[in-house]
Amino acid sequence: MSREPLPEVHVPRQLPxxxxxxxxxxxxxxxxxxGLDRLREWPRLxxxxxxxxxxxxxxATSLLSxxxxxxxxxxxxxxxxxxxxxxxxxxDTWNTAYPRPxxxxxxxxxxxxxxxxxxxxxxxxxxxxxxxxTTRFFERASYGRFTLRPHPLADWIRMPRPSTxxxxxxxxxxxxxxxxxxxxxxxxxGQVDFSRYDVVYFVADPDxxxxxxxxxxxxxxxxxxxADGTDIRRVVTVFENHPPDRLVLAHETGHVFDLPxxxxxxxxxxxxxxxxxxDWDLMGSQFGMAPDLFGWHKWKLGWLQPRQVACVRQRGGxxxxxxxxxxxxxxxxxxxxxxxxFGLGGGTKLAVVRTGPDSALAFEARGPVGNDTAACRQGIxxxxxxxxxxxxxxxxxxxxxxxxxxxxxxQSVYPPLADAPVALGESFTVPGEGVRxxxxxxxxxxxxxxxxxxx
Length: 455
Fold this sequence. Notes:
Blueprint: E1 9-11, H1 30-39, H2 49-54, E2 70-72, E3 93-95, E4 105-113, H3 123-130, H4 133-141, E5 148-152, E6 157-158, H5 174-188, E7 199-204, E8 217-227, E9 230-238, H6 248-256, H7 295-301, E10 309-312, E11 317-322, E12 333-334, E13 340-341, E14 350-356, E15 359-366, E16 379-386, E17 396-399, H8 415-418, E18 427-430, E19 435-442, E20 448-453
């Protein structure tokens, strides 16, 4: 697969197929009409609605889903309001259309083979490509609050059509994608009780001729699939090579938990994709040197307690001791003498300055600990959050404290931001905001003492 990030696919809510006539499909061409006929011939699923709803991607309309029920989450003054933006960075409420990763969640891995290819790898080998690495990433990121439990099938499930029949590619068409999901669900339904699982991975034979590794992504459905009495609102479709890109499944699973894409996608597909956040969050790039999730994301997901977030008032300031973001029970930071400092994990991890109704500045301590063991530089990372920005449209932007220098050319996905953190003894004023951060010192336990002054 290329180093370019993989966008999600959003399938809008569709008109229900029940009661629709052939005339309703005339605008979709002969293929969709023939698909309606074929729909009546496919094997019965445990719930016939599963067939109907998977076909919904064939009938594109502009209807939108009703807003999800909001679950109260945080009343902190700095908690931005969740908006209608896809994967909004607002976190005053939790979007209950998504599973909340504050407990153990179960994920089924369904391995799909095709009539035109004999698999060269086994399901066990493909499972090992992603687990336990994905589980360990989330356990470290969540400080042990969340465990992703994989349940891989032991054998391949044969798809009814050749791999080339689905025209799998990075931005594949809605009809082909719907056919793939429909066939995969029908083929697997006899062997999988989908009601037992919170996350669904459809993993394709990587050596099949029609499989394109750039097509790995999450498919979101406003009209859920229906199987075994449960709604399937999104599916992670995996087309990775063997071995795959590092942490690619963790990135895609982040979307299942309502996290946005943080990369910048050039209009023409050319240029640098990593200008917004560089190495500093998995949702920007799974190749990053410091891929741990931002503290803002950990707050959103419920992994930081309200007391671990310091809200700094405007027209004032505060002196704060920030624990390294990655330090926790399993990932001790290093103290001032270089020895591991245990006991971290429950203190302040994130400082926030509210800059507007839908914007804020965040400050967190990053360094070589936890998921960030390969971090290029350490210090206080500063970034801007916008709750109204759509996924992939810059909802988070790292602010470079060293805009005239670069670092780690050989390893960084974007060297200009590799040295973005404010280092020990440095001061930095955020351009255009009048907010200043002074990194005053380190504690014996490895925490950072900072002063944040607002205008």
